[in-house]
Write a structure and sequence with these properties.
heterodimer; A: mainly alpha; 11 helices; elongated; B: 317 residues; mainly alpha; MetI-like fold; 14 helices
């Protein structure tokens, strides 16, 4: 009796495991390039296109105030997406705002990734004292909530596109450094690195030619998700009025402006919020798909 | 024990570096604080007097250690703007921030635990997928955006909850808690997703353990298995994450406190930043870092309490 029960339990267990495996296989298939991958990609394409060619596109100027059409929603206005509190064209402000968000997102992520990779490679390769010092530095930055550090930086360096991008970039270094360090430690023990060492290759050569090519891909897989994060943080800063100064349009700033009259003219906040949400979501969706694709590929390779 | 001491030393060093970093950022500034305080039409002599009064003439290192020795005995300096002692300013506002944080985490856990358990129990089912996808969407809504949406829906449209302002607890518990619901929800609605994810992942693993099969085989009711046998071993990552998220929470609550006009430490910091009130900025940041570090230490301790294996492994390692 007891033995059959155990046997049944075991059978049930393996059944469960098999079911799980099949389901995971299915989930993996689903993850591949469905509409949840293409649609966000198209959206990002449109946003990037508009931001890059904002100057050439047939747009109304983003800072011109039309006093005959103040805070009009899209359906009552001659402007495509309506006007804000000061009668400025919302569509035009959205597109020029996309410039700010995307620039900060991409520049900050690039800075964070470049320096994070370098630091992570050094810490993961040399270990010992180098690693201790680097970890201490990283922990110091991580001991403060990111936003607090950025607020501090905005006090010191003022709010401009360059200063926000750079300070946010510096802030992103620890996260990238941690991922690169973990990956480097993995590869530093592998046969091809040992072989290179045995052949008398110098450390720099090993790091750059043997380890870096292997580490760069899994680290870069995070980049898109980090861009989404950076856009959110920039949005929060400009919402507080501590990012790019006022006449320059930014998504966070637009959401903040509409807040005063949320009850009467909700479209001002919500159009900005909607565009920002779609963009952040798109970066997350595309990034996540690419990351799990990469993980699957590696699994298959092993 | 040695592990504890080592960890403690590390934390103290980190805290020290944080204060140095803050002091650097706040004090190596373009422009002169004394001019800011004196106002636009102050004479050069007045500015000089303020400068001497605040000890701004002395070199950076001396000022830093002067400040640090004050901090260690509980004197965090005085606000340049209001003359209020910084410790007092922080301590009167801290309860508000603490309450916001507790209500937020409570809502997040109340959402995350049932959803995580259901997702784990019915892994890869429709329910599981709906939870995952919904979570993904919520994760892409920043707290300040969520605040705007919630204000619009519950504050202006349905008119259920107050939009801004704070009622002290002496006005009655419900009056007080009411003012925290929307702010807390704004943060919690993004928080629960990650909590659900880690709980789901851990619980799927635990549910495949032999002793769960054993309990099932004995005919124990599923609810009891879930809550009594599976919950504790599944909650390690959850607790770690709850601790780690306190950092995000502090960051998020700074904005949320300003939006909802809650008089907490975050709002104090923002106001100080707008008015360039450096002692208050320095104090708030130190206070936040201190809290953050202490909480991380606490999470480590919780770990050891919950799982004796960690305790011994770490003690030996």
């Amino acid at each position: 009796m007891a033995s059959t029960t155990t046997q049944e339990t075991i059978d049930h267990g393996t059944e469960l495991a098999q079911e799980n495996q099949a389901a995971e296989e299915a989930a993996r298939k689903r993850r591949r390039y469905g509409p949840l991958f293409w649609l966000p990609l198209v959206w990002l394409g449109v946003i990037v296109f508009c931001a890059v060619f904002a100057d050439i596109l047939p747009l109304n100027p983003n800072d011109e105030m039309d006093f005959t059409e103040l805070s009009l929603p899209p359906w009552e206005s001659s402007y495509v997406l309506g006007t804000d509190l000061q009668g400025r064209d919302i569509l035009s402000r959205l597109i020029f705002g996309a410039r700010v968000s995307l620039t900060v997102g991409v520049v900050a992520t690039t800075i964070g990734m470049t320096f994070g990779l370098m630091i992570g490679l050094l810490a993961g390769y040399y270990r010992g004292r180098v690693e201790t010092v680097i970890t201490l530095g990283l922990d110091t930055v991580l001991a403060l909530p990111g936003l607090v550090l950025l607020l501090l930086a905005s006090v010191t360096f003022g709010g401009s596109l360059a200063s926000v991008s750079i300070s946010l970039g510096l802030l992103l270094i620890p996260a990238f450094a941690r991922v690169s360090r973990a990956n480097t430690m993995n590869f530093a023990q592998r046969e091809f690195v040992v072989a290179a060492k045995a052949m008398g290759a110098r450390d720099l050569r090993i790091i750059l030619l043997e380890i870096l090519p292997n580490v760069v891909l899994p680290v870069a897989a995070y980049a898109l998700v980090v861009i989404a994060f950076a856009i959110v943080i920039e949005g929060a800063l400009s919402f507080l009025g501590l990012s790019v100064p006022s006449p320059t349009p930014s998504w966070g700033g637009m959401i903040a402006e509409g807040r005063e009259t949320l009850g009467e003219t909700p479209h001002i906040s919500f159009i900005g919020a909607g565009v920002m949400f779609m963009t952040v979501l798109s970066f997350n969706l595309v990034g996540d798909t690419l990351r799990s694709r990469l993980a699957d590929l590696r699994e298959a390779a092993v | 024990m040695r592990y504890l001491v080592g960890r403690f030393g590390h934390l103290i060093t980190v805290l020290f570096l944080v204060t140095v970093l803050t002091f650097l950022l706040v004090n190596v500034l373009p422009g002169d604080i004394a001019y800011d305080i004196a106002g636009l039409d102050a004479s050069e002599a007045e500015v000089q007097a303020i400068r001497e009064d605040l000890g701004l003439e002395r070199p950076f290192v001396i000022r830093y250690f002067d400040w640090l020795s004050g901090v260690l005995v509980g004197d965090w300096g005085i606000s340049y703007r209001t003359g209020e002692p910084v410790t007092e300013a922080i301590l009167t506002r801290f309860p508000v921030s603490l309450e916001l944080m507790i209500v937020t985490q409570l809502i997040a856990v109340l959402l995350a635990v049932p959803l995580g358990v259901i997702s784990a129990l019915r892994a890869n089912s429709k329910v599981d997928r709906v939870v995952t996808v919904t979570g993904f969407f919520f994760l892409s809504v920043p707290a300040f955006m969520m605040a705007i949406i919630l204000i619009y829906i519950f504050g202006l449209w349905l008119n259920w909850l107050p939009v801004t302002g704070y009622e002290s607890i002496s006005e009655g518990l419900w009056t007080n808690v009411r003012t925290f619901i929307l702010p807390a929800l704004s943060i919690a609605l993004a928080e629960w997703t990650l909590l659900t994810r880690v709980l789901r992942a851990d619980m799927i693993g635990v549910l495949q353990e032999d002793y769960i099969s054993m309990a099932r085989a004995k005919g124990m009711p599923m609810a009891r298995i879930l809550w009594v046998h599976a919950m504790r071993p599944s909650s390690f990552s959850l607790i770690t994450l709850l601790g780690l998220q306190v950092g995000n929470l502090i960051g998020g609550s700074i904005i949320i406190e300003s939006i909802f006009a809650l008089p907490g430490v975050g709002r104090l910091l923002i106001t100080a930043i707008y008015t360039r009130d450096f002692m208050v900025i320095q104090g708030c940041v130190t206070f936040i870092a201190l809290g953050y570090v202490v909480i991380n230490f606490g999470v480590d301790m919780c770990y050891a309490l919950l799982d004796p294996r960690v305790r011994t492994a770490r003690a030996h390692g």
